Amino acid sequence: MSSIQNSVQNMNVQNIAATSQIIGSQTTEQAYTGSGSMDPLRPLPRPIDQLHECLAALGLSEADAVIETCLERASKEAPSYAQFLTELLTSELTARQLRQLRMRLRMARLPYQKTLDQFDFAFQPSIEERQIRELSTLRFVHELSNVIFLGPPGVGKTHLCVGLADLAIRSGFSAYFVTAHELIADLSRALREGKLDRRLRQYVTPKVLVIDEMGYLPLDDRGATLFFQLVTARYERGSILLTSNKGYAEWGSVFGDPVIATAILDRLLHHSTTINIRGESYRLKERRRAGLPSTPERSLENQG
Question: 109-287, which class in CATH?
Fold first, then answer.
């Protein structure tokens, strides 16, 4: 019985494509007009045209684009109904997922696209590759934990943050990248305009918030308070990826107040991983590879 049913199914799918061609070529002298009256000169719409209209009305743009190709293939390969629908809907689903991914990447405002696989762990032996691979499982995102990268400029802190954020985005999470200077300037402007609560919500919404270059410029009292408010608002609600060239012992000078620095660290470090990078700058490495001096001072000495 199962073989008979399969044969009938295959014949029916073939009939779908065949019928769409046969009926589509036919006309009738008893077609309806839009007002409901008979119009002997207007042909009935072809089934394939009706199918296009239905798919478009349902917002299935990719299915609408490939339906004729799928029907043509079905007329030759005779798939089951389930196989035919799976192929059609998989095309739609894949296209939607790609559009959503592109939108998440665009909204994340990553400064560049770099992956963890592109990171040169051999150049930075102070980093345990195993620890970074563990972070790449994104368990820290599920656990609403933070990751803080500490180290001098140019050692790859931002690269690792961008790589993790990119991975999170491709796994379906939302992310947003901002430098500490841009963040505080934006929140300060929102405070002056009476829109701080709304702006804070925009920074709380992403599952992963990347804050780059914390500590490169000291914050005034208002900036420190605004950053504290943001960290508090995100506490146990989303993950923060943060880079800084300052050790935790120096954060009191960064925020201008050891008390508020302690309060910020208390929330940041409660659920967190700290990666200390002690190594040479990638940028200096590239300068030497290009035959350029490592510092402007050496350049002047060479000229002298």
Answer: alpha beta
